[in-house]
């Protein structure tokens, strides 16, 4: 494959080390609501989903609606945990900068809201690596991951052909979306299921620092 026209990074678990933090808060919030949930269960059942999908699945398991202010309380508690504990993924800043130095545009495409992405990138000193207009949310398209809508929207907005885009993801739903969009997919497996990512169609990497070398740039 020739040099990509665009490299699309997922945010949570790829750029910022947020998955354990988010899912610990989620497990506590669901348990307090009457749905006992461990960190392992939260990651297995909800990781990579839109928050609206998390709510829907939790309500199905509970057999009733969550409290009216549940989402508000969860987002508040998660933000507090991010401000206290969030760190960038090792090698993320260097990998993004090397891609940019090679003249290849970069962007972020996350299931999370733009507000959350801006916050987490800001807390980890990664926000300045991405130009204005290069952040995309699953909330902006009809269907989030595992559908291709988000990645296709990002490619169109950034002026890149889908077949010339590379995606870096850490979830099966994200890899599935990238493959469905006709894009090359890398599965960052430092804290994810390598076998599942590979089965979904990803090329595997365990350290982001090697990404530019895998792209031959």
Task: Give structural notes.
The chain has 217 residues and is of the alpha/beta class. The chain folds into two domains: 6-17 and 87-214, HAD superfamily/HAD-like (Rossmann fold, 3-Layer(aba) Sandwich); 19-85, Putative phosphatase, domain 2 (DNA polymerase, domain 1), CATH 1.10.150.240. Helices cover 46% and strands 12% of the residues. It has ten helices and six strands, in the order E-H-H-H-H-H-E-H-E-H-E-H-E-H-E-H. The protein has a six-stranded parallel β-sheet, with helices on both faces. Helix 9 (194-200) links the parallel strand 5 and strand 6 (203-205). The protein is globular and about 50 Å long. The mean pLDDT is 96.
SSE inventory with pairings:
Blueprint: E1 6-9, H1 19-32, H2 39-46, H3 51-62, H4 70-85, H5 92-101, E2 106-110, H6 114-123, E3 135-137, H7 149-158, E4 165-169, H8 172-180, E5 184-188, H9 194-200, E6 203-205, H10 211-214
Parallel strand pairs: 1-2, 1-4, 2-3, 4-5, 5-6
Helix pairs in contact: 1-2, 1-4
Summary?
It is built from ten helices and six strands. The protein has helices at residues 19-32, 39-46, 51-62, 70-85, 92-101, 114-123, 149-158, 172-180, 194-200, 211-214; strands at residues 6-9, 106-110, 135-137, 165-169, 184-188, 203-205.
**How large is the share of residues in beta strands?**
5-15%
Major sheet size, sense and barrel closure: 6 strands, parallel
CATH superfamily of the largest domain: HAD superfamily/HAD-like
In CATH, the architecture of the largest domain is 3-Layer(aba) Sandwich
| Oligomeric organization of the protein chains | single chain
CATH topological fold name of the largest domain: Rossmann fold
Terminal-residue CA separation: 11 Å
Gyration radius from CA atoms, angstroms: 17 Å
Number of strands: 6
| Count, helices | 10
Mean pLDDT across the residues is 96
**Unreliable residue runs:** none
- How many individual domains? 2
